[in-house]
Amino acid sequence: MNGWIEKFYIEPKLFFSYYGFGWIKPIGEYTYLLFIVCVLAAFFVMIGLKYRWAIGVFFVSFTYIELMDKTTYLNHYYFVSVLSFLMLFLPANAYFSIDAYLNPKKAFQKIPRWTGDSIKFLLSIVYLFAGLAKLNSDWLLKAMPLKIWLSSKYEIPLLGPFLSENWVHYAFSWGGAFYDLAIPFLLLYRKTRPYAFGMVLIFHLLTRILFPIGMFPYIMIVAALIFFDASVHHKILRHLSSAFRIPKIVFDNGKSLVISTLRTRVIQGILIVFFGLQIILPFRYLAYPGELFWTEEGYRFSWRVMLMEKAGYAQFKIVDGHSGRWFYVDNSDFLTGFQEKQMSFQPDFILEYAHYLRDHFESQGHNQVEVYVESRVTLNGRRSTPLVNPSIDLAKEKESFKHKNWINPFSDEIKGI
Q1: Which residues form the HTTM-like domain (predicted)?
Q2: Contact criterion met (CB below 8 Å) for 313 and 375
Q3: CA–CA dist 354, 352 (Å, integer)
Q4: What's the DSSP call for residue 290?
Q5: What is the spatial distance between Cα 234 and Cα 292, in angstroms, rounded to a whole number?
Q6: CA distance 74 to 117
């Protein structure tokens, strides 16, 4: 795994926690075992073997991995977690699976329509909120941050010479917003579906070439197949059955899965709450004052994909409240390079790190430790400005869902959703 498990989950001294999940931490060398369990569970889900157990183990293990350290947060990790939670309630092993092959009682050729529609709805939420988030002045009127990112991709064959052109930056910005907002509807409509899937292929393969975002483009390409009719799925399965010499006819029993009324109502009740949260969470930023991109209060878990380029530095000053002596901290003594980079422009990281420094130096014999930070951040190409009020003792500030009033106001305005 190219050593990244050790780099991100074993070597660091400090792991940044999500609020309320501080009890979830890497488990030392056993972290490798956790990843192995997750991979095996994913394989069992793929082939449909012991599906219910497999998807449960996958959801728990993958989500635990995601919650171990928010330094590695990415939207597509969150997507995999919520999709796997959704699949806990879906009969994904009813057809063309080992479970169905070994036990005819679990084999069904037809399943209730709402089971497939729930995945379509989740994908539509992801795309629509990603599109709505792009309707802001930085993205549409300044082509930011794509102007920064694309200009640095000059070495890419064929595309490279064009990526420094201003019109290309705006074409990608406006095209990306249109794609996200339109693609769910184009995929839902049968006549436009083939062309929409072509757009899915082009869009996600292009993003894979331009940006290092891992497996997300391939996940979205494969997931988009859910919008096609059963006839298309059967054609794909015929090719798979031929390639792996699996007798597909064994599964074509014409049986329909009937879920009891009570169970259906319970599952649908859970899904209503689940989808309600998915719709509400992206709007929670409205409860906070200030610019979302600056404070990042309500930014995560809202499908705001690749909307900003931030960089900064944070210098921490430790004061012994008893003696008045003070000194600056060398962040590299406590953080990896990647952690320091992420910490420098995210307020909740800065607060958690300040608390860590307080506890560390108090354990070293310092009294009534106070922690101050001088931090400057640049957002989407703007000049760097102070992020944190340097006169506030962060050692006394508590983490909560309340607004962090020690964050300096944003010196500019970004209009939009």
Answers
A1: 2-232
A2: yes
A3: 5
A4: S
A5: 45
A6: 25
Could you tell me which of 152, 178, 133, 151 has the C-alpha nearest to residue 308? 133
Residue 376 dihedral angles phi and psi, to the nearest 5°: -125, 140
- Stated pTM of the model: 0.92
Helix (H, G, I), strand (E, B) or coil at 209: helix
Give the residue from 185, 156, 183 showing the smallest Cα distance to 168: 156
The answer to whether residues 94 and 239 touch, using CB atoms and an 8 Å cutoff, is no
The angle subtended at Cα 64 by Cα 302 and Cα 45, nearest 5°, is 90
Non-local CB neighbours of 312 within 8 Å, separated by 6+ positions: 344, 345, 375, 376, 377, 378, 384, 387
pLDDT surpassing 70 at residue 2:
no
Average pLDDT over residues 272-282: 96
For the segment 44-58, the average pLDDT, to the nearest whole number, is 96
Give the integer Cα–Cα distance in Å for 374 and 388: 7
Count of positions (residues) in the chain: 417
Distance separating alpha carbons of residues 386 and 408, to the nearest angstrom:
7
The closest alpha carbon to 25, from 70, 56, 89, belongs to: 70
Indicate the SS3 state at residue 25.
Answer: coil
Supply the pLDDT for residue 154: 82
pLDDT over 70 (residue 179): yes
Mean pLDDT lowest among 8-17, 156-165, 199-208: 156-165
Distance of alpha carbon 130 from alpha carbon 269, whole angstroms: 26
Rounded Cα distance between 353 and 316, Å, is: 9
Q: What is the pLDDT averaged over residues 38-56? A: 96
- The per-residue pLDDT for 245 is 85
Is residue 187 within 8 Å of 197, Cβ to Cβ? yes
Rounded to whole angstroms, the Cα distance separating 388 from 221 reads 41
For 43, the 3-state DSSP assignment is helix
E strand spans, 267-384: 310-320, 326-328, 369-379
Domain-wise residue ranges, the chain: 4-137+170-197+217-286, 309-396
- In this prediction, residue 259 carries a pLDDT of 87
Q: How far is CA 358 from the centre of its chain?
A: 30
**In terms of Cα–Cα distance, which of 413, 318, 294, 301 is closest to 374?**
318
